[in-house]
Structure formats: structure tokens, C-alpha cells
Amino acid sequence: MSQRDADPAEGDASPSADLAAEEAPHLPEPEFGEQGPPFERRNPFFIGFVGALGALLAWFLFEALVGIGSVLMLVVVALFLAAGLNPAVEFLERHGLRRSWACAVVIVAALGAVALFLVAIVPVITDQVRALTDNVPHWLDELEKNKSVQDFNDEYNVIDKVKDYVNDGDFISSLFGGALGFGLKILSALFNAFIIIVLTLYFLAALDTTKNAIYRLAPASRRDRVTKLGDRVIRNIGGYVSGAFIVALCAGISSLIFLFIIGLGEYAVALAFVVALLDVIPMIGATIGAVVVSAIAFATDLKMGIACVIFYVIYQQIENYVIYPRVMKKSVDVPGAVTVIAALVGTALLGIVGALLAVPTAAAVLLIMREVVVKRQDQR
Q1: Does residue 193 contact residue 110 with C-beta atoms inside 8 Å?
Q2: Distance of CA 57 to the CA centre of its chain
Q3: What pLDDT score was predicted for residue 57?
Q4: Would you say 200 and 291 are in contact if contact means Cβ atoms under 8 Å apart?
Q5: On the CB side of 126, how many CA atoms lie within 13 Å of its CA?
Q6: Cα–Cα distance measured from residue 378 to residue 62, given in angstroms and rounded to the nearest whole number
Q7: Given this model, what pLDDT does residue 257 score?
Q8: Quick one: residue 33, left, alpha or beta (phi over 0 = left, psi -120 to 50 = alpha)?
Q9: 203: exposed, middle or buried (Cβ count in 10 Å: 0-12, 13-18, 19+)
Q10: Which of 156, 245, 272, 371 is deepest in the core (most CB within 10 A)?
Q11: Alpha-carbon distance 368 to 362, whole Å?
Q12: Residue 2 has what pLDDT?
């Protein structure tokens, strides 16, 4: 038996293979040779090159965020204000007003409060700065009667320099870099305030649309839970704003009554309004208001100043341990220690804006920790 008969499969395959080879198109040889294997991605050079590109891109994005940090801050403040004013808008909606009209009413009321503050405090500040300027030389003269102070002044000539500085009458504007710097800061503040008002109005009018657009970014399987958590966070912000308003109202009313009692009724309404507005700032706001009122009282009369110091020391203890915990417990469920830590961290990072955003942010973080992290740990 021949080899061809013994292996019929091989014999049958040979004509087919030859036919396929004849029918296959003849590919021309590449002009620059055959293409080599792809670059090895585990090669140290490849890893280092791509890593360097990633680091450069991350640095570029970081620099871009730093560059637009002031704009992002305005957006965050506007979102916070919109969420805080939303309960008032919903209240007006429940009483028959359309959302657009309700937003307009709330914004006008908020702007009216700010305008009232400016009208009330500017004359007081002007008069008291003038009074302080007139009284500082007399106080320095009294201070020079002390033998130790007089010897110190003879050696370093400090008090005489302070007198000349105050008598020039331009020390307030020099604090802001001169008249030009002071004017630029005023214009910048007005521009930022205008941007915040416009953004707040837009966010407030389209809050539901904005929320739904953000919620749709979550997977469909988790969208319902994300929606409920997000709505709770927004309600917490609104509750915090309402609670802060109640606490500030208590501070303003108590200050108004006290100032009338001690005989500072000429500026009682304005100063009480200042105390109420500053009291919105956690931790430091009440202290700043107390310092402002006490300084004005000292400029008017020594006994009034001492009475103000005693009153505000006692009142702040009552507010910190009685009023604030009871009001905020119903609005924002945040432990006292967390409130203090959040306010300190927020103030260190973003100043007054960080202090305002600290407590509702802490409430949101605690809510997410309880509902997401803790429950996930309990399931393991």
C-alpha cells in the first residue's frame, strides 16, 4: 500500500491547500518592513512616561482649581443660600404663590434685611470712629502719666508716633492700602455680592431641576437612595438656616432690651441688629458682636462698657449651653463637640465663609456616615 493510500486525509487536504494558496491575494511586501510587536506596557520607560503625564495633568487641574477658587467659592455660597432660603419659598408655595413669585418675595426680603443693616450700621460706625479718633489722643495723654510708660516712650517714641498717626485722620483707609485700595476692596465686595445674589436667584428658581439633574448621575439601582439622602441634606441646610435665624433673633432682642436699660438707646436698634447679624457666624460671631458693642459703650461711658462686658459674658454662656443646643437639636442633629471642631476647621480653611458652611457640612457628613458607611459595615 502506498503512502498516499494509507493517509487519505492528507491526500485530500493537499489539493485544497494548494487551491487556497492560489486564490489568496498576493500582498505586497511592506516598504518599510514588517510591523513589530506592540510596545511592552510593563516597560519601565512606558510606566514612567505615562505616570509623568498623569502627574502633569493632575498638577494642571490643581492649578486651574486654585485659579478659579474664588469663583467656586461664590458658587458654593450661592448654593448654600439657595438651600437655606428654599424652606421659605416652599412655605409661600404651600400658601398659593407660584415658585417664581415666591423666589422673588424671599430674595426681596433678604435684600431688604441687608439694606436695613447697612442703613442702620453705617451712621453708627461713622459717628463712633469719629468719637474714637477724638478720644484716642486724650487716652494716650492719660497713659503717658504712668512712669513706666513714659520711660518706654522716651526710649522708643511709640506714643508720639501713634498720636501723629491718629491725628493724620487717614489711618482707617491706610489699613486697606490707602484710599485707592479701600475703594477697590469696596468695588470687589459689591461685585461679589451682586454675583452671589444673581446665582442664588437662579439656583433658588431651578433648585428642583438642579437636584434632579445631579441625582441622575447616580446609577439607576441607587438613584432612589441618593435622592432621599440628597433631599435630607438640603432639608438639614434649610433647618440650620432657620435655627441660626432664631438664635440670632434671641441675641438681637436681648441686646436691644439691655442697651435700652443701660441708657444706650440712641444706638440700641442699630447695635442690636449688628449683634443679631454677626451671631449667625458660629463660635466667633457672637464674640465679635459683643466686642463691637462693648467698644462703642466704652467710647461712650466707662460704666456702660463694663456693664456690656458682664452682660455678654453671661449671655454667651446661656446661648452656648441652653439656646443653641435646644434650637439646633430640632434643626440639625450634630453633637456639640462636632459643631466646635467643624467650625474651627471651616474657619481655618475658608475663613468666615467656612465657618458658615461648617455646621451643615458636618451634618451632611454625619448623615452619610450613618446611612451608608455604618450600615454597610453592619451588613458584613
Answers
A1: no
A2: 27
A3: 93
A4: no
A5: 6
A6: 37
A7: 92
A8: left
A9: buried
A10: 272
A11: 10
A12: 47
Report how far residue 334's alpha carbon sits from residue 280's, in angstroms, rounded to the nearest whole number.
Answer: 17
Distance CA 238, CA 249 (A): 17
DSSP string, 225-275: HHHHHHHHHHHHHHHHHHHHHHHHHHHHHHHHHHHHHHT-GGGHHHHHHHH
Give pLDDT, residue 313. 92
CA angle 105/111/112 to nearest 5° reads 85
User: What is the structure's pLDDT at 141?
Assistant: 67
Listed in sequence order, the residues at least 6 apart from 26 whose beta carbon sits closer than 8 Å to its beta carbon are none
Instruction: Tell me how far apart the terminal alpha carbons of the chain are, to the nearest angstrom.
Output: 74
Distance from C-alpha of 192 to C-alpha of 177, rounded to nearest angstrom: 20
Task: Using alpha carbons, select from 314, 315, 295 the residue that is nearest to residue 247.
Answer: 315
Residue 88's identity, in one-letter code, is A
Q: Which residues contact 133 (CB under 8 A, 6 or more apart)?
A: 166, 169
Q: What is the pLDDT of residue 161?
A: 67
Residue written as grid cell 450600615? 375
Cell readout for 196 is 452671589
Instruction: Say if residues 286 and 319 touch (Cβ distance below 8 Å).
Output: yes
The three cell numbers of residue 227 are 435622592
- Residue for grid cell 500582498: 27
pLDDT value at residue 298:
81
DSSP H helices, 95-206, are 99-144, 147-156, 158-167, 171-174, 178-205
